[in-house]
Each structure stands twice: as structure tokens, then as C-alpha cells.
Specification:
Strand 11, helix 7 and strand 12 form a beta-alpha-beta unit. Helices cover 30% and strands 16% of the residues. Helix 3 packs parallel to helix 6. The model has no long low-confidence stretch (mean pLDDT 95). It is built from 11 helices and 14 strands. The chain has an 8-stranded parallel β-barrel with strand order 3-4-5-10-11-12-13-14, surrounded by 4 helices. It has a two-stranded antiparallel sheet with strand order 1-2. With 363 residues, the protein is of the alpha/beta class.
Length: 363
Amino acid sequence: MASAPSLFDPIKLGAIDAPNRIIMAPLTRGRAGPGFVPNELAREYYRQRASAGLIISEATGISQEGLGWPNAPGLWTDAQVEGWKPVTDAVHEAGGRIVAQLWHMGRVVHSVFNDGKPPVSASATKAPGQAHTPVGRLDYEVARPLRLDEIPRVIADYVHAAENAKKAGFDGVQLHGANGYLIDQFLRNNSNLRDDDYGGSVENRIRLLGEVTEALIGVWGADRVAVRLSPNGDTQGVDDSAPDKLFPVAAAALDKLGIAFLELREPGPDGTFGRTDVPKQSPSIRAAFKGPLILNSDYDTANAEAALADGIADAIAFGRPFIGNPDLVERIRTGAPWAADNPKTWYSPGPEGYIDYPALEAA
């Protein structure tokens, strides 16, 4: 009988050969320069963390319409592509692998980011709370429902960003289908109130997810396309009345497309960044999706190894631990303590709390 895999066993994630199963989860850090262009700070930040089995980049905007976070990076202009090239080069020179997470925020884009135009979503709904904007916190606005004739344009924006990710030197792309952003707004029935081909039944609500994924496969091939889902409770006001009926069907559709891997963000009741008491959907998703399954949210070494041993995950994506521990892989390997990160500097400008966390030897 084969022994259970450990965090340090290699794994094939589609066409990507990861030397370990410690994945760096996407982490919005807000350090891009004017024009949403990655800069020298990002090059150093990602280079420091290249020992991860795979880096999933911070969420990266596919269009001006879809990006509503101050100083987040984009992938729709030539300048943004040029900004990413030194980043991917640095990761590769350090022996790492990196995929770009493609992001359309939907209804949580405030109009100040988009020349005063209202945000778009599945339906005319409004996120709770306030948006971070360059002029301070502002209440979210009611979204404009995407018309049927606009959906091909949105898919084309994803394709354009995927083509730019290839030009920028990434190893693949991940579709951000989680956390209450555009794809998730279409998936879940409290934010999708449509009565056309993209609303109502589960099959209709997963249609955009499938169409965008297929379009990305057209650029990269299925073995370099991944998807992130959050099959949990309320996320930024987006929720579903029957997640157990929705997410396994979505996972089965992605399995049929043969994607490289599926990543799930599933915070528990004590989650540090969002929490939910909803039962985890990963066991039923595991049954529906036969490819590599990566789980994320509040794992430590012990429960990460347990998830691999139990067979409910093939790899674990660590988020916050990678902020304060650029050498997280080595710390896990040696059993060294993990440094704490400082939430006050998650999104602040400059190098503090970004590239100045010391590696173990320096510490």
C-alpha cells in the first residue's frame, strides 16, 4: 500500500511540475504603481517566495471595468505586461513557477475606478459595506446587470488578459471564481437574479464560469488553466441557498474541461480572513473533480499534512503565512517557528511589511 503524500512530495499540476505541495495562495498587497503596473517591489516580493511549489499571483485585473482595488496590478495594457516580465523572470531565475490569477471584481468595483460608470454584475444588486478607493472608503453602489450581448465582451477581456499573461512570462493562469467577485456573483443565487440563459438553474448559473474557462483553455491549453472557488457561506454579501447543489455541479463541469487544478478557499468558523459555519463542500467536490485539488484557509503544518493523508487534498495553498515568512517552505521543512505578519501593512505602500520580512537565517 502506497504511503500518503507529504507536503514535500512533488506533484504535477497539469503541465506544471511543482517540487512540493506548499502552494502560495493569491494575496492582494496593493503595491503596484501608476497605471496598475507592477514594479521593482513586486519583483523582489515574488522572488523571495519562489521556493513555493507554485505561486498563484495576487488577483490581477483583466480590464479597467473589472479592477477596483487601489494599486492592484492589471494585465490589460502593454505597460502592465512589461511590468510583470521582470517579476516572472525573477521567479524563474530563483527556480520557481508562477501563474497569474485573473480578476474581475464585478459589483465591488466603485465607479471612481471606472470614469464614473456603475459597476457591472449578474444582477442589479449591491455589496454590503464600503469600497477601498483612492479617495477613502465609499459606500458600494448598485450594479448594472450585464446584458446578454455584453457577455462576449467580458469573456474577450479575460482572453486578452490571458494572452497578456503569456507575453509576460507566466506559467499559466487561474480564473478567480471566488470571494464574491464577478464569476461568484453569477454562480450564487442571492446575487444572480437573472431569468435568462445565465440565471435560475444551477446549470445556467455556472454557464459563465464554464465559458470563461473554455476561453482561457483556448489561449493556454487546459493543462495550464486553473480555477479558484469559495464554496462556503457569505463572502462580500454573495451567498447561495444550496451550496451542496451548486458547487459539486460546477466542479464536475470543470473536471470535464480537464483543467490543471481546482483551488478551494474554505474558511471555517474561526477563519482569520472571513469565517463561515457552513459545512465544507470539499468532500463532495472531491468526488466530482478528479484532477488535483488544492485547499486553502488557515492551515498549519499538522492539519495540512492530515488533509493530504486523508486524501481530501493533493496540495495546500498557504496565504497569510507567506506574507511574514518568505521562506515558509524551509520553515515547514525544518519545523522552525513561523513569523507573524502585520495586518496594518498588508495594503500600505512601500517595502515595509512587503519585502522586509527576514528569512530564517537572517532572523
